[in-house]
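seq/struct pair 1
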Amino acid sequence: MKNFNNFYQYKIHNSRKSLGFFGILFWGLALLICLASTSLQAQSVTRTITVGNTPLGIAVSPDGSTTYVANYFDDSISVIRNGVVADTISLPSVVFPPPSWPTPVGLLVSRDGSKLYVTYSAEASISIIDLNTKLLLNSFFAGNEPQFPAMSPDGRKIYVPSSSDGFVAVYSALTDSPTGAITVGNKPNAVAFSPDGSKAYVTNTDDNT
């Protein structure tokens, strides 16, 4: 396991053009700027909700009342309640002075619903947003092109795959601080857990594993 605590000791690629696998995929979907609500029983789209430019990550609050959507090229989060966009959170840059672009990709809501974890692709970081004040609480290095965060079943740790660096960054969900990183394959992009939390499964795009 790698150990890292200093955000600035890593080289960060501040480029909207360096999107890797997800850039190719989502540029092709750049015109799709709506969120479709789907009925699983009827297996049909029941509603379409217009959000921001190039929506990527999505997360739902623990009580199910609120849905959050990351708008990559708008640097914002759409907040959806009762089937409509009720609010928009503008994301601040955390590394580079303006003009710069957070370019949010993945989202994760804390178990108590008070915080939103957002991965910033171009700024190689994960930011923590207070959902009550909509202010930035903290930010940490997450590797270049961080993807979709996932929380362990016990709610104690958050795992973030770094697509360009080939590791999964690990954070304490209790203290909101980095604890280390696990080297995996090439271009990791998603993490899932066994029900008992004893194993984590990581997909590696360039390795086909």
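seq/struct pair 2
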Amino acid sequence: MPFDYTDAPPPSFDLIPDGTVATVSIHVRPGGVGEDDMLKRSANGECEMLDLELTVLDGPYKGRKFWHNLLGMNFVAKIGEEKGGPKKDGGNYADKNVLAGAVTKDKSGWHAVEQQPPFNGGGATSTSSAPTAPVEWPEWAR
């Protein structure tokens, strides 16, 4: 049965209002670069980052998605502690530290943080003065 979308309202692309507090899930979208291919390289190749897709799980914006590229950045963090739960085979998992939140300028404990230098492409600078051989196209691609 075909669907007729002739009278359907146009999709809404309004931003979720600034300051909205909601529960979100985070999905890392692998980009094929870095450890376990989990990073994405920028279009100009100058940096690598985590490509995050966040989905709102509750409230009036439930189901809405937004995206964020998390560069290798330094920030002020609130560190929490999570108690280890029971193991299936007995005993408990060890307690662990977790990221409880990011401390922003308007919060107690925030301070300016020096950022790390930009990504250099991941390769060491070459000390060899030997010229590199030109890349040859394979026969089938000529």
